[in-house]
Amino acid sequence: MARVVVDVMLKPEILDPQGQAVQRALPRLGFQGISDVRQGKRFELEVDGPVDDAALARIHEMAETFLANTVIEDFVVKVEDSTVGAQK
Amino acid sequence: MARVVVDVMLKPEILDPQGQAVQRALPRLGFQGISDVRQGKRFELEVDGPVDDAALARIHEMAETFLANTVIEDFVVKVEDSTVGAQK
């Protein structure tokens, strides 16, 4: 079993009010030096069986048709080492 | 200017209805072989100046106090190569 990550972000030319809200809040909260924030989505998929080219092609198609709205969003598919389970 | 990414995911023991909805929809849409989906948030921060240990410590604190709810969420701070701009 392997983990595949799909990161979905708004395209650079699309306004991101969520990210802007975060960016404008940071100085008020005492954090300087962040000039831009973009907020997107991260999907972690647990894949049964091997993550070969066919599986990746299927996941790419899934991301394109279902996880991302490709009119306004870009996505990246990444295979994550399944042994790296510890987060934080 | 460098890009720092903060990934925020629900802790493994916290129920993720969003991810479950995605996971249950996939077979209906013709995608088999995905046993679990977790959905989280991805923040891309553009940092002014160098991303040294002090800046990373500040971003870590920011993520802990503001971007993530550490009662129910884990987060990971990653420095992304600023030359890798092309997505998709």
TrEMBL record, chains A, B:
PANTHER family: PHOSPHORIBOSYLFORMYLGLYCINAMIDINE SYNTHASE SUBUNIT PURS. Part of the phosphoribosylformylglycinamidine synthase complex involved in the purines biosynthetic pathway. Catalyzes the ATP-dependent conversion of formylglycinamide ribonucleotide (FGAR) and glutamine to yield formylglycinamidine ribonucleotide (FGAM) and glutamate. The FGAM synthase complex is composed of three subunits. PurQ produces an ammonia molecule by converting glutamine to glutamate. PurL transfers the ammonia molecule to FGAR to form FGAM in an ATP-dependent manner. It is an enzyme of class 6 (ligase). This is Phosphoribosylformylglycinamidine synthase subunit PurS. Its EC number is 6.3.5.3. It comes from Streptomyces longispororuber. Pathway: Purine metabolism; IMP biosynthesis via de novo pathway; 5-amino-1-(5-phospho-D-ribosyl)imidazole from N(2)-formyl-N(1)-(5-phospho-D-ribosyl)glycinamide: step 1/2. Part of the FGAM synthase complex composed of 1 PurL, 1 PurQ and 2 PurS subunits. The gene is purS. InterPro entries: PurS, PurS-like_sf. One of its GO terms (biological process) is 'de novo' IMP biosynthetic process. Its main location: cytoplasm. Gene3D superfamilies: Phosphoribosylformylglycinamidine synthase subunit PurS.
